UniProtKB/TrEMBL annotation, chain A:
It comes from Novosphingobium nitrogenifigens DSM 19370. Its main location: membrane. InterPro entries: CcmF_C, Cyt_c_assembly, Cyt_c_biogenesis, Cyt_c_biogenesis_CcmF. It is a multi-pass membrane protein. This is Cytochrome c assembly protein.
Automatic annotation (TrEMBL), chain C:
Belongs to the CcmH/CycL/Ccl2/NrfF family. The keyword Cytoplasm does not apply. Coiled coil: none annotated. Possible subunit of a heme lyase. GO terms for molecular function: metal ion binding. It comes from Novosphingobium nitrogenifigens DSM 19370. Pfam families: CcmH. The chain crosses the membrane at residues 116-135. Residues 1-27 form the signal peptide. This is Cytochrome c-type biogenesis protein. Residues 33-136 form the CcmH/CycL/Ccl2/NrfF N-terminal domain. The lineage of its organism: Bacteria, Pseudomonadati, Pseudomonadota, Alphaproteobacteria, Sphingomonadales. Keywords: Cytochrome c-type biogenesis, Heme, Iron, Membrane, Metal-binding, Signal, Transmembrane, Transmembrane helix.
Length: 654, 196, 145
């Protein structure tokens, strides 16, 4: 019964989306004005209905309804509850339902609370949102019905690939997903503003919290995914420039650029066409990413729900949605004036520069990821990996980081760096630059065999850490707005992550060893000893567990337990690494196979400061969260004040 | 469409020559996007091929002299391929399931007069003996390649793979994966071609 | 990261008693016996050179992993080949070319400068030019008004 309700409700939601699109579209013409009143309530109702449908699917998974095909294919009655719930979106149909759910619920929120934007633009935005949603409803209802029943119920489900039964699955995909789909709101705002030729600060302020929110989720999702890959894949790598990773990085880069340009538009009324463009690009990168992951046209180590036919459907949606938006842009953007002017030395200028650099990195990642497809269409297979991406994106990243240090110190519109301003801005920045140079020279002189990029990274990060704190100097910290705190924390986080990346790349010690029980090896500052082997059994696997004692520079012993696990159903092996984290780095241990001589293959890495990569990533997200909090709080205050005024007026009988 | 728009724009704002160029630039994103879609369509239409073909086809076999993989057959050296008669070189292993699946086809090829040389990858003599007892032994010789030295030398990336070597020891063709019944006539034809 | 319970312990005991053959980590494919698959070169300079090369070579059996990140047997044998050659004093780029001769450009994560890859190297230049054009347009006008 629940499945039927879910499906029926989904059809109703699709019908409402159709109504939302038609009413919204017609109401933009003079003769259809009356229809405008329909759009907001319909959008809210659509959101509620989809939420009910999604709830129905979650319920089916939680209760393991074995007459539903999707549940049988992807779940099992004996699975822990968290993996039952995660199983809802751990498959193609469920994840598409999650996609429309986020989209419709976000649309409902916009309809419910957005009051600042001109009504016509808002209606156009909601119509745009309905337009994209309709494509995904069609995809769900025609080609991937999540509620389909089996002819005959079966005894139990097939379970989820045990390798995916990790907390990583419960959090990484939906987080990334909320980010991907959240950008659809930014896209719809951009389309709405283009349709009604109303690109201005009000539009930017309406769009900003959605961009911020989506961007926070993207940041957390990428950070979590990187750490998941790091501890699961067993070779200590944390970023591989794999197509699927790049597919998540590209929307993030576009959203980062959008986030900054939307701020310029909101506070300075500049960069109008550029912001609209980025709004379209950011969501198109989400869809390109989804397409690349699902279609399987590029080989990836993280392939998910690959099916070329679904790829075709997503590609069609991509072509229709983004193609029409870009065509609209071509037609309308020339009527959007550029907005306010600013000088070469101003905060706007630095933001524009970094926007362009971010788009440059995005271009490089896009070209590098897709180039193998281009050559394959000519019959040649090539690979593009880190040796291309690292240096070429650095061409854009390093200037961007430099400007990132300077920009927040500059004034809007026009700044002059002489007299008092020189003392306040130039001197501290010069000191940070000097620190970076000193660190660079120091690293080059002391470290053995360190290559250029990591050395530059360490130097840059050392200069950036103090530089990103400079905007707080001379402020009353208690009265500093959340938005400023957010910016400082996010920029600091980027510097911290950069330091972690560069340090990992420069100072990692690798030790591969075949050890007998009782043997000791040095791994950088650590002495590790293989104490013993123990067979253990997990819930659905058996494993050999090694006992390894590690001492940091002869200090107290700490025991680690790396495991080699074998799964019977489906068969497979997994090396579960054991990590030991200290303030200055991480010891990474992996148990391999037993050699013919009875010794155990073990792999050890000492990675100085590697956790800073993910700590930094989370700081970036936290910065976004603080900024969002600041914006939302300001909006709420404004709403409350408005209500108070209205109430007073009412009481005074006006 | 874009050209029309530009003309209108130029007429209206004749003093701003950069404007028209700018307006053309506004269509650049759509052009890039169209190229992207074309690329994706092409990628979807192309049959998925994840195998890595050897780039070494057309080159002479490298010098090698592999010891016998077990007692039933002698080892394999490059010299065996200089007899003037084309041969098949089958790379296999007892631990590989598709290798067992292709054994009837290998037997059929051997019956049709093809000489099949084998290279066993990382195999143990007793495993190999069991494999040959179960699946038949169509090989003239079986070399033992424990470190994949020869496999890497000829650009082979997995098991099973079958190469056609002509009478002068030059690699003429590579077949990736197990030999299906429908592949047999094709391989025989290629073999004949290599002998011509 | 790992959860073990009393149930797991009981299961362990049952397993040890009933199926000792299941205990050795089962290798589905032949174990790499090549000398340097899982062994480093004694000379740290040589090892560093080998490592720097290995992270840029693609494992031909895996899904987009380098031979330095893979447990696939052929990746181990390729590592051993690389280390052996480095130890013999061969130039890393020479080894890369040797592999490209056999597996094509696919085996190298470092794109080779060839006619078919020129757009890849032109891309940063083109993007820089485009960026320059965009920035010039904006600031050029900005100073005029």
């Amino acid at each position: 019964m629940i499945a039927e309700i879910g499906l029926a409700v989904l059809w109703m939601a699709a019908a409402l989306a159709m109504l939302q699109l038609i009413a919204g579209g017609l109401s933009l013409r003079p003769e259809g004005r009356q229809l405008a009143a329909l759009v907001r309530p319909v959008a809210v109702m659509q959101g509620v209905l989809v939420l009910v449908a999604f709830g129905a699917l979650v319920t089916l998974f939680v209760t393991t309804d074995l007459s539903v095909k999707l549940v049988v294919d992807n779940s099992h009655s004996a699975k822990p509850l968290i993996f039952k719930i995660a199983g809802t979106w751990g498959n193609h149909e469920g994840s598409m339902l999650l996609w429309v759910t986020i989209m419709a619920v976000a649309g409902a929120f916009v309809a419910l609370i957005e009051r600042r934007l001109e009504e016509r633009t808002l209606i156009a935005t909601l119509a745009g949102q309905a337009f994209i949603s309709l494509g995904f409803y069609a995809f769900l209802l025609i080609a991937s019905n999540p509620f389909a029943r089996l002819q005959e119920p079966v005894d139990d489900g097939q379970g989820l690939n045990p390798l995916l039964q990790d907390v990583g699955l419960a959090f990484h995909p939906p987080t990334l997903y909320v980010g991907y789909v959240g950008l659809s709101i930014a896209f719809s705002f951009a389309v709405g503003a283009l349709v009604t030729r109303n690109v201005g600060p009000a539009f930017a302020r309406a769009m900003r919290p959605w961009v911020l929110g989506a961007w926070i989720f993207l940041t957390v999702g990428i950070t979590a995914g990187s750490y998941w890959a790091y501890y699961t894949l067993g070779w200590g790598g944390w970023w591989f420039w794999d197509p699927v990773e790049n597919a998540s990085l590209m929307p993030w880069l576009a959203a980062t650029a959008l986030l900054h340009s939307v701020s310029v538009l909101a506070s300075r009324d500049a960069l109008r066409a550029w912001t609209v463009m980025l709004g379209v690009v950011a969501f198109s990168m989400s869809m390109v990413g989804t397409f690349l992951v699902r279609s399987g046209i590029l080989t990836s180590v993280h392939a998910f729900a690959v099916d070329p036919q679904r790829g075709t459907f997503i590609l069609a949606l991509l072509a229709i949605d983004i193609g029409s938006a870009l065509a609209l842009f071509g037609v309308r953007a020339s009527t959007v004036s550029e907005g306010a002017r600013f000088s070469f030395l101003s905060r706007e200028a630095s933001l524009v520069f970094n926007n362009v650099m971010l788009c440059g990195i995005l271009g490089i990642v896009l070209v590098g990821t897709l180039y193998p497809l281009v050559t394959e269409s000519m019959g040649v297979k090539v690979s593009v990996g880190a040796p291309y991406f690292n240096p070429v994106s650095a061409i854009f990243a390093f200037p961007m980081l430099l400007v990132m240090a300077v920009g927040p110190m500059l004034r809007w519109r026009k700044d002059r760096l002489d007299g008092e301003r020189a003392r306040r801005v130039s001197l501290p920045l010069a000191a940070c630059g000097l620190l970076a140079v000193v660190v660079l020279v120091g690293v080059e002189l002391t470290a053995h065999r360190i290559s250029l990029l990591p050395a530059l990274g360490i130097a840059m990060a050392s200069g950036l850490v103090p530089a990103s704190l400079l905007p707080l100097v001379g402020r009353n910290l208690r009265r500093t707005p959340f938005a400023v705190w957010g910016m400082v924390v996010a920029h600091l986080g980027l510097a911290v992550a950069l330091f972690g990346m560069a340090s990992e790349s420069a100072f990692t010690t690798e030790r591969l060893a075949a050890l007998s029980i009782g043997e000791t090896r040095d791994v950088g500052p650590w002495q590790v000893r293989l104490d013993g082997m123990m067979p253990v059994a997990g819930p659905n696997y058996t494993a050999l567990e090694a006992s390894v004692t590690a001492r940091y520079e002869g200090g107290a012993p700490i025991v680690l337990h790396p495991e080699a696990e074998s799964f019977a159903n489906p068969p497979g092996t997994r090396n579960q690494s054991a990590l030991l984290t200290r303030w200055n780095g991480q010891l990474y241990t992996v148990l391999g196979e037993q050699g013919d001589d009875g010794r155990w293959q073990m792999r050890f890495w000492w990675k100085p400061f590697v956790p800073l990569i993910w700590v930094g990533g989370l700081m970036v997200a936290l910065g976004g969260f603080l900024a969002l909090l600041g914006r939302v709080a300001a909006d709420v205050r404004r709403l409350v004040a408005k209500d108070k005024i209205a109430w007073r007026r009412m009481r005074q009988g006006r | 469409m874009s050209v029309h728009e530009n003309r209108v724009g130029e007429n209206q704002a004749g003093e701003n020559r950069g404007g028209a160029r700018m307006r053309l630039g506004l269509w650049l994103p759509l052009a890039i996007f169209a190229a992207l879609i074309a690329l994706f369509v092409h990628g979807l239409l192309r049959p998925a091929d994840t195998s890595v073909a050897s780039a070494f086809v057309g080159n002479p076999l490298p010098q090698f002299d592999l010891p016998a993989a077990n007692s039933e057959r002698p080892g394999l050296a490059t010299a065996a391929f200089h007899s003037g008669k084309p041969r098949l070189l089958n790379i296999f292993a007892s631990w590989c399931v598709p290798c067992a699946a292709e054994s009837p086809q290998l037997a059929q090829l051997a019956q049709s007069g093809a000489v099949i040389e084998g290279i066993a990858i990382q195999d143990k003599p007793q495993d190999l003996a069991r494999f040959l007892a179960n699946n038949g032994n169509p090989y003239a010789a079986i070399g033992k390649d424990d470190d994949r030295k020869v496999q890497l030398e000829i650009g082979s990336s997995g098991v099973p793979e079958t190469f056609i070597i002509d009478g002068r020891g030059v690699i003429r063709y590579q077949h990736i994966g197990d030999i299906r019944p429908e592949d047999v006539p094709m391989l025989l034809a290629k073999l004949k071609e290599a002998g011509a | 990261m790992k959860h073990k319970s009393a149930f797991a312990l009981a299961a362990t005991l049952a397993l040890v008693l009933s199926a000792p053959v299941a205990l050795p980590v089962l290798a589905q494919e032949g174990a790499p016996s090549a000398p340097y698959a899982y062994r480093q070169l004694p000379d740290p300079d040589q090892e560093a050179r080998a490592k720097a090369l290995m992270v840029t070579l693609r494992c031909v059996m895996c899904q987009s992993q380098s031979i330095a990140d893979s447990d696939a047997p052929i990746a181990g044998d390729m590592r051993s080949e690389v280390r052996t050659r480095i130890a013999a004093g061969e130039d890393p780029e020479h080894i890369r070319q040797w592999l490209i001769q056999r597996y094509g450009d696919y085996v190298s994560f470092t794109p080779q400068v060839k006619p078919i890859t020129w757009p890849l190297f032109a891309a940063p230049v083109a993007i820089l030019l485009l960026a320059g054009l965009l920035l010039r347009g904006r600031f050029g006008k900005g100073t005029r008004t």
